[in-house]
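TIGR02221 family CRISPR-associated protein
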Amino acid sequence: MTHTVITFLGIRPQQTTYRYEGKKYQGQVFAEAMLQFLTFDRMLVLTTREADLVYRILEEKNDPRIKKVPIPTGRDDAEMWGIFDRVIEYIQEGEEVTFDITHGLRSIPFLAFLFAAYLKSAKNVTLRAILYGALDLKDNGEAPVLDLSRFAAMLDWINASDQFVQTGNANRLAQLLASVKEQKRAAETLRAVSQAAFLCQPVSLMKASTSLAPDLMKAGASFSYTSKPFSVLSENIIHIFDEFALEEPLDNPMEFIRREWKMIEWYVGHGQMLQAVTLAREVMIDAVAFRYEKIIQLKHDQRASFERAISGIARLGQPITDENSGEQRKFSVDDLNRIGYQIYETWPDAECMAKTFANLPRLRNQLSHAEHQADRMKLSKVEREISKVLADLYQRLVTWGILPPSENPPSTSTTPKD
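Predicted structure tokens:
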């Protein structure tokens, strides 16, 4: 793996003694000192027109690893973007990079941190160090050399935390946590929450979410300075996913359905429509079963009876072929199973409920079949219909007393929540 040093050249060289890892090194510019203690494959010396004369100090070394890279001074946005373009141009995929910001003028040190963040993401670069020869902190004539790369590592925690909050993907965050023994349990919990959210597994998500707060709090005591931002960000994570937490979901059917609805809101708010529609269909069956007999059925035969009951009501009046005579006729109340007949006879909103249910698998199929349908809908229409069917489902849940009226139906145009 190529190790590249990127150094910025100043315009006022001065003979300085630098102290690095307990040893002393001399140099008129910090790059001269780095030649003595740093192992690398090439050094890119970013040089403004004003620093051309200073470059001769390095040029005289006759070191083939050293390459001069002319850059603008950085007086305005255009020039700063010019510096950015020059740096990115010279760095290849997968390199190791060390930045030296000792002689960087104006905004250069700030840009170096942005370079590091961008290169790690865009070119899979490994950041070895961000070195600063602290001339302003001289002690007994010696300037200490500081490695500021730990502060760049803060960006990893911020980005990983934001990715988890916005998408439910905790892989990057779990990797960062798992690097410390005391944080591995929190990493495992995050992975469990993430996997359950991604795969639309509400029972697993609710159970795993109950461990999230205590595991993150225990891990917090071992956070290093580089992961300190996560100790603050974790509060936001706990706040969001605590809404889904339920120790024994199936022992409390109403709370289970309410948390499922929270999941639907979260899916819609974060653009995960397939999961939202998939879960909405199951929530309708859960809600009908709960209203009918105060429990949620997960056994296949019992759940299938509710599915046939709801879908049967939706089919009333539709043409079918009689199983006995083979003749065409309309699906009637007599064709309903026992549960369907009782619901149809006693629930005033039975037909509206069944119509909502019938639309859910239709919309789910539009998404899950990945446009491999001759009669596929435009995505804009799919979104509009999802909004409508979820609003209808919301109304059923409020009418049946499962959701409080203060809840709001999610909209497909909702901005993702933090």
